Amino acid sequence: MLLKTKIMPVKPATRDYHPARVERAATKVKRISPPAKRLVLPRNKTNLDLEVGGRVVKLTNLGKLFWPELGITKRDLLQYYADVSEALLPHIVDRAMVMKRYPNGAAGEFFFMKRTPKPHPDWLELCHIEHSSGNVIDFPMIQDLPSLMWLINLGCIDLNQWYARCDDVDRPDYLHFDLDPVPGASFGKVTETALLLREALESLKMPCYAKTTGSKGIHIYVPIQRGPTQKQVWKFAKEFSHAIAAQAPKLITAVYVVAKRPKGRVLVDYNQNAWGRTLASIYSIRPRPQATVSTPVTWKELERGVSLEDFRIDNVPARVRRLGDLWEPLLAKRGRFKLEAYL
User: How far apart are CA 94 and CA 84, in angstroms?
Assistant: First the structure.
């Protein structure tokens, strides 16, 4: 068994400060890179001890149907994530992961889980986050392909990582806007809203990137330099969202109270920037009828027009192989916006 080390917090948590303890393997085990050759899961086994880079992951119930109408099994779900892991993993490493588990498939009941279940592999890295109540939650971190396979095997369909890395969970490295259609609004209106937000953000010299949510809308992310707290990022997002809604009131709303939202508008949801919230990650499959995927898109694609059903479990891996990771710039240290200019 690998020994673990913990970096202990210096002072207790408050509403604005949340110390985190990173738990890593004490022995110098290198983070495992995706295999040089495509990992292919066998179709003749229901349970499997998968070995990747010397680590063993137990995969179970591989033949279980997760999308019965499409014939998509748990094996297919795991295979998809293995296929996109090289592009996906850099976006989620070193971040606490909230588990959203679907034990009976995409159409079944689901439940959220924050604490890492026991037992778990001794090589799994954890992020212990202290809340203002004094409660400490030990979230898993998905650092490589073995830990990704472990998570998906729990019945997780989409991935929901924290916005800030575990070394400082109060200071995110991006802000985002969740564009969600209010009843009566088409996806075309969502696209129109995304293009308006792009124009407004770029007028402030902010680089921005879009992806489909895989569910109903579009996410827009802005890479920022770490520094502002999550609360400050949320406050900026709120003010920006209300300002853009005022410019196009027949198209956009920033009203958060559901009963007061005007129908047929697109909600610019800024509240997802609040501390402790999560959004479905890049390349996440969503529990939707067509197994659609939250997929990075270019602004030219949005200008031409896309649909959510264009990006699915069966075609996104090929798209990633063809185009690479369109959100790779979001990972770069250079080119990040200094949000303090508007705080």
Answer: 18
